[in-house]
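Worked example 2:
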Amino acid sequence: MYGPWGCGHCKPCKQSSENYCDNHASQAAGGGLGLDGGMAEYMLVPSSRLLVPIGDLDPAIAAPITDAALTPYSAIKRSLHKLSPDSYVVVIGIGGLGHTALQILKAISSATIIACDITQDKLEFAKKMGATYTVNSADKDAAEQIIKITGAKKAIAVLDFVGATSTIELGAKVVGLNGDLTIIGLSGGNYPFGFGRVPFGVNVSIPYWGSEVELMEVIELARQGHIHIEVEKFPLDQALEVYDKMRKGELKGRAVLIP
């Protein structure tokens, strides 16, 4: 199921970008986002246009793809035309979305990947997921370490899956001229935007989810084996216990409830 539900009639919706529906203010955000969601034996969906075929893909694997893979995929596609073999892309935050972004970048681009996180285990994990270089973003000289790798041209794209003030500031220091600083994380960080705060030509954007066509594409990437999201399966009646595990940080990967 495609997550963000628009009106289905405006131009963005007709272009499969219901995540940017013209009438979003008057629409429920989607199943589970203002309306009853999928934690039930059955789910009501207002239109068949919101359903995407998954072929032979396991539904338990397809479920987290609709967000944990679609969101980074859509963000990456904004910069894909800039990700040439001689370019660098910085990924900040190797969590549920960030580790999927590394796999997607490896599958659809030839840019060199620099992964940033604050724990050593996440950085080691990033190497396994396709990063060529890793930098601890908590280091005071993290920006200098990244620029030492990229050289003076810096990174053509920075994908911030944290969105804290500190990570946005790091991204602004390492993005190059005419590059993209894309903030996907929802940590609520702030950055004073103004002349001289980022290099000339830099696009600063806050994308939301992705289009339905992009969901079709990312599902195909998963079917071809390019994306692997680790999931833990639980019966539906354990939903509250799973939320408790999530709060305590006891889940590995994504939790999937099975009716």
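The radius of gyration is 19 Å. The first strand starts at residue 30 and ends at 31.
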